[in-house]
C-alpha cells in the first residue's frame, strides 16, 4: 500500500514537470515564431529655413532650463581641429554671417519699410544709431533698432561690429582702457595710460567679454581676407583700433600739440626731415572716422580652438606671441615710419617704388604683405596703419565724418 502511494506521487511529480517543460517550450517557440515589427525606414526631416522672428530674437521668456541651453557649445558635432581645415569650410565673405551682428548708421539715413528707396519711411536714423542685423538682401539689411523699429537700411552707409563677423582676430583696443600713445617715447599727458572712450562689453553672440570694434561693412570684408592670409601662414591680426570718433581724435591732437610745444626734443623729432605733425595724427579728418582704416599688429598663433555656439562655429586664438615691431603701437614720430619718405596716402601704387624704412622688422613686413595682398594701402608714417581706399572714397561721398561715439551692442546668436 505504501509502495503504491509512493509510485502515484512520483507519477504525479513527473507529469507536473513534463507539463511545465512543455509550457515553457511553447512560450520560447512562440517567441521565435512571432513576427517582429520591422525597423522603421529613416525619415528625412524637411529642411526648415532658420529665419529669425521677433519672438525668437528678443523674447527671453521662451528660454527653458535645459542642459543644452546651459551649455550652448554642447551640440555633439565634430569640428575640424586645424585652422586650415576650418578656413576651407567658410563659404561667405566673412567668418560668420551678418545675421545677428550689431551695426550702426554711419550717417543719418532713412529706415525703409521695404528694400527700396521708393518705399515708405519707417523712421529716420541719426548717425550712430545702433541696430541688430536680422537679414541681408543684396545691398540692404533688415534691422531692428534699439528703439524697436524694424525696417531696411542700405548697408553701404553702415558700420558693423568686427568681432561679430571676424571673431578669430585678436582684439586689443588699447585706447579703450589704457592708451599707449607716445611721441618720440614721451608720454602725452591726458592721453598715455588713459581710457579715451568706452568700447568693451559682454557679447552674447560670442558668449564672452569683447571689445566693440566698428568698421565700414565693405572694409570688414577686405579685413577678413587679410586675416585669412595671416591664418594660413600660422599668424593672426591683432586689432588695436578701427573706427575712431572725430571728437576723440581732436582731443588727443590738442594734447599732442601741447606736448610738442613744451618739449623741444619731441618737437624737433616730429618735424624731422620731410615729416610733420599731420603725418602722425590727422589735423582734420582721418580714414578712422570713415571706418575705412585699421591700426593693427601681428602675432604668431601658438594655440587655438574651434568654438561652437549653437549652429555657429569659429576660430578662437587662445595663445599667441606678438612679432617684434619697429615701435610700440601708436608711437607718433618718425621712429614708426614704414617708408623712407612720405607718399600721398591716397596713392595706391607709388608707395611700392619707395624703399622700406630700415627700422621695418620681419614681422612688420609680414603684416604689410598680408594687407597689401588683401587690397589695402599702407601709411608711410605708421607701420601699423592700413587704408581701404575704395571704402574711404565711398564713405567720403556719403559724408561719413565720425560724429559719434559707440559703446553699445545688440548682437545675438542667429
- Report the span from N to C terminus: 93 Å
Indicate the structural class: alpha+beta
User: What is the element string, with H for helices and E for strands?
Assistant: HHHHEEEEEEEHEEEEEEHEHHEEHEEH
Number of strands: 18
Radius of gyration: 32 Å
Q: Helical stretch count?
A: 10
Q: Give the averaged pLDDT, no decimals.
A: 85
**Order of the strands making up the biggest sheet:** 6-5-4-1-7-13
The assigned CATH architecture of one domain is 2-Layer Sandwich
Question: Which fold name is given in CATH as the topology of one domain?
Answer: Muramoyl-pentapeptide Carboxypeptidase, domain 2
Low-confidence blocks of residues: 1-12, 14-78
Main sheet properties: 6 strands, antiparallel
CATH class of one domain: Alpha Beta
**Proportion of strand residues:** 15-25%
- Proportion of helical residues: 25-40%
Overall geometric form: globular
